[in-house]
């Protein structure tokens, strides 16, 4: 039995990883923000801890509780929590950009640093990135920025933690079944409000509002399978692209370089044709 910590565990990828970990017989410490979600996780058999990545106080409090629960011994930490602030760069707000990077980059890094001493040799430090940390498309600029930054942070951790025997991994999902689009849509509408913009958000909004999955979408369990393989030691690569969509996009970006711009432009028109 291993002790694993999973953030953002109330829905989607995090929830699937909690389920997979418990089924595998591991001890799970799972974080969420809402009381109902914490109760649900506790009923599943996990130790549930409140964590709000936008709050330094919450990050420190959650870390203190986890260190006490684990007696300073964690076998795997999966930084999964985060959200998407998907809006055009010119329509971004100071608060929106700040919260996006705090939740997706700064918060997970500070949380990780508080728990680092509990990660022993041969432990696993895992981050949930995105194919949008490899490519950039219109109306996702702030989110892409945060995931590109996370890519750099993971590479730095890998270089700096290798002497301590801590294995660092990044999972890069493409489209996955989750509540991600609902949260993204809420943040987008709050930002735009009655604001005038000359950009055409119709395709972007239609995708977020649709109940249908985008082409190539896989269940959250597809990420949980990779995560569990990393925890159990059968998956040792530093990066794992998940979904054929993500794998194809990463390949085209690598082959085309700056010319990938033409594909991204066609995929998401920003003005009415």
Automatic annotation (TrEMBL):
<protein>
    <submittedName>
        <fullName>SDR family NAD(P)-dependent oxidoreductase</fullName>
    </submittedName>
</protein>
<dbReference type="GO" id="GO:0016491">
    <property type="term" value="F:oxidoreductase activity"/>
</dbReference>
<dbReference type="InterPro" id="IPR002347">
    <property type="entry name" value="SDR_fam"/>
</dbReference>
<comment type="similarity">
    <text>Belongs to the short-chain dehydrogenases/reductases (SDR) family.</text>
</comment>
<dbReference type="Pfam" id="PF00106">
    <property type="entry name" value="adh_short"/>
</dbReference>
<keyword id="KW-0560">Oxidoreductase</keyword>
<dbReference type="InterPro" id="IPR036291">
    <property type="entry name" value="NAD(P)-bd_dom_sf"/>
</dbReference>
């Amino acid at each position: 039995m291993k002790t694993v910590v999973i953030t953002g565990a109330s829905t989607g990828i995090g929830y699937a990883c909690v389920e997979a970990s418990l089924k595998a017989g591991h001890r799970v410490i799972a974080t969420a923000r809402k009381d109902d979600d914490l109760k649900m996780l506790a009923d599943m058999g996990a130790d549930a801890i409140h964590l709000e990545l936008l709050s330094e106080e919450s990050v420190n409090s959650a870390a203190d509780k986890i260190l006490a629960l684990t007696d300073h011994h964690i076998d795997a930490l999966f930084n999964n929590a985060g959200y998407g602030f998907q809006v055009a760069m010119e329509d971004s707000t100071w608060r929106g950009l700040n919260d996006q990077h705090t939740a997706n980059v700064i918060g997970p890094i500070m949380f990780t640093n508080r728990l680092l001493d509990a990660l022993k040799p041969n432990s696993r430090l895992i981050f949930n990135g995105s194919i949008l940390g490899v490519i950039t498309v219109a109306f996702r600029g702030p989110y892409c920025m945060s995931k590109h930054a996370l890519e750099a942070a993971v590479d730095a951790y890998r270089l700096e933690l290798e002497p301590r025997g801590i294995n660092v991994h990044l999972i890069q999902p493409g489209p996955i079944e989750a509540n991600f689009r609902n949260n993204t849509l809420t943040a987008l509408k709050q930002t735009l409000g009655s604001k005038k913009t000359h950009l055409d958000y119709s395709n972007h909004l239609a995708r977020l509002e649709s109940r249908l999955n985008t082409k190539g979408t896989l269940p959250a369990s597809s990420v949980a399978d990779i995560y569990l393989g990393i925890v159990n030691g059968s998956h040792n690569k530093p990066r794992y692209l998940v979904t054929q969509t993500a794998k194809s996009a990463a390949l085209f970006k690598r082959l085309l370089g700056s010319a990938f711009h033409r594909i991204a432009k066609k995929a998401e028109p920003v003005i009415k044709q």
